[in-house]
Amino acid sequence: MELNDLQVWHSEFLRTKQTAAEIRAPKFAIPQINEINAGLHDEMTYEEIAMHYPKDFAERDQDKLRYRYPCGESYIDVCTRLMEVMPTMMTTDNLLIIAHQAVLRCLVNFLRKNDMKRMPYEKIPLHTLFKVTLDEDGINLIEEVKMAVECVDTYRPKPTNCRVDRSFAESISSVPAHL
Fold first, then answer.
1. Burial class (CB in 10 A: 0-12, 13-18, 19+), 75
2. How far is it, in rounded angstroms, from Cα 127 to Cα 115?
3. Over 80: is that where the pLDDT of 137 sits?
């Protein structure tokens, strides 16, 4: 399918730029759609954070929406920066956004008009296109189109035990398996 007026927005991260590379359309690196900044925990796995920073790991499990990574961001911070580009995003036809899970959780949650408390647990599968259309009543219709790319399921539900004194095994019990 060819869309003559297609625009592509991607984050400033290399992986989204690479994903956009072969698309024949104007491309824009938009810093507001960068992934959540994990600060001092950037490039660490859940297991590494749970092992080396169990208090931080438990605090994030307790309130994932408001938890701010040390020297990083919270989901609320991501939403705040997304609000800078949301007016343009909502009034632009044929816009393809190539972003990251935390950002997509914020956007999908907003479009579905869900309670913000659900946002950090919005299921956003990897390699999935979310096609958003607005119907005549102003309702956002979201269709999920899965790409034929094998990948892990990275969804992590809220743990039942979020206490700081839980065991390491219990703290990572809801962490998805790796490939």
1. buried
2. 25
3. no
Top-confidence residue, 129 or 55: 55
Nearest to 158 by CA among 86, 65, 56, 69: 65
Amino acid in position 32: Q
Do the Cβ atoms of 170 and 61 come closer than 8 Å?
Answer: no
Helical (H) or strand (E) element with 140? strand 140-146
CA proximity to 141, closest of 132, 152, 130: 132
Please state whether beta strands 128-134 and 140-146 pair in parallel, antiparallel, or not at all (unpaired). Answer: antiparallel
Q: Is 142 in contact with 130 (CB distance < 8 Å)? A: yes
Q: Which CATH class is domain 7-171?
A: alpha beta
Q: How far apart are CA 171 and CA 131, in angstroms?
A: 35
pLDDT, one tens digit per residue, over 60-107 is 999 999 999 999 999 999 999 999 999 999 889 899 999 999 999 999
Binning pLDDT at 50, 70 and 90, where does residue 1 land? low
Domain boundaries, the chain: 7-171
23-31 average pLDDT score: 96
